[in-house]
Amino acid sequence: MRIKARMGVSIDGFVATSDGVPALIKAQHFVPGQSHGYPAFIKGVDAVLMGRNTFLPALGAPEWPWAGMEVFVLTSRPLPDGAPNDAVVAQGGPQELVDRLRSRGSDRDVHLVGGPRAIHAVAEIGALDSLEVVVLPLLLGDGVRLWPPDATPPATHLLREPRVFPDGSVELTYRIVSQP
Ligand SMILES: NC(=O)c1ccc[n+]([C@@H]2O[C@H](COP(=O)([O-])OP(=O)(O)OC[C@H]3O[C@@H](n4cnc5c(N)ncnc54)[C@H](OP(=O)(O)O)[C@@H]3O)[C@@H](O)[C@H]2O)c1
């Protein structure tokens, strides 16, 4: 089982606007579940992991984005009404959540959806295997940074050749070499 993070990021390094709209949503021609090689990325994945701030907006989405996936949420509090009953919350923190992922009886991969704080928390305990970024052809000027400004970033190593998509986006895939 590998834990794979993947984020859409603006040219200037933001994953969301300052009011929390994901950079991907701002990208012209973005089709959820289709663009930027997502179907190939999600093949072999049967669980998603995310921080509370990424999970909550999905509750109001017209279509549940993770149908058929096991959902794990990093939060120190209970989930609100309306959250799927089978979403797993481990209030003991990231290590407890990763332990539960590893003991779920599947060797398939886990998509770490985000956001930056959740990715950092998983990297910090040595459990992040790879980080993929899709650099989108747009500038945001301000917003939520790919890595939390107050957190030590890990060393990374490019895993494969960058891939360019028709809309001008570029996919970069890194192995996490040393944890923060
Ligand atoms: N561009 C993309 O592809 C993409 C993908 C995903 C998200 N995003 C954007 O990312 C933003 C959210 O990112 P975020 O970093 O603010 O939030 P996040 O990582 O989604 O969630 C952070 C929350 O996780 C909980 N948590 C529990 N234990 C933690 C720990 N040890 N370390 C860190 N968090 C812990 C905390 O909630 P409690 O207070 O409940 O403990 C914390 O507030 C949104 O604007 C979203 O649009 C962008």
Overall domain count: 1
Radius of gyration: 16 Å
Question: Which ranges are low-confidence, i.e. pLDDT below 50, for 5 or more consecutive residues?
Answer: none
Largest beta sheet, briefly? 9 strands, mixed
**Annotated CATH architecture:** 3-Layer(aba) Sandwich
Distinct small molecules: NADP nicotinamide-adenine-dinucleotide phosphate
Classification by helices and strands: alpha/beta
Q: How many strand segments?
A: 11
Name of the CATH class: Alpha Beta
**Number of helix segments?**
5
Distance between the termini: 21 Å
What is the CATH superfamily classification?
A: Dihydrofolate Reductase, subunit A
Residue share in helix: 10-25%
Task: Using brief descriptors, characterize the structure shown.
two-stranded antiparallel ribbon, single chain, binds NADP nicotinamide-adenine-dinucleotide phosphate, 31% strand, nine-stranded mixed β-sheet
Structural account:
By secondary structure, this protein is α/β, with parallel strands linked by helices. The chain has one domain (3-178): Dihydrofolate Reductase, subunit A. It contains 5 helices and 11 strands; from the N terminus they run E-E-H-H-E-H-E-E-H-E-H-E-E-E-E-E. The chain has helices at residues 23-26, 38-42, 52-58, 94-102, 116-124; strands at 3-10, 14-16, 45-51, 70-74, 88-89, 109-114, 130-136, 144-145, 155-158, 163-164, 170-178. Strands 1, 3, 4, 5, 6, 7, 9, 10 and 11 form a 9-stranded mixed sheet that branches. Strand 3, helix 3 (52-58) and strand 4 (70-74) form a beta-alpha-beta unit. The protein is globular and about 40 Å long. The structure holds NADP nicotinamide-adenine-dinucleotide phosphate.
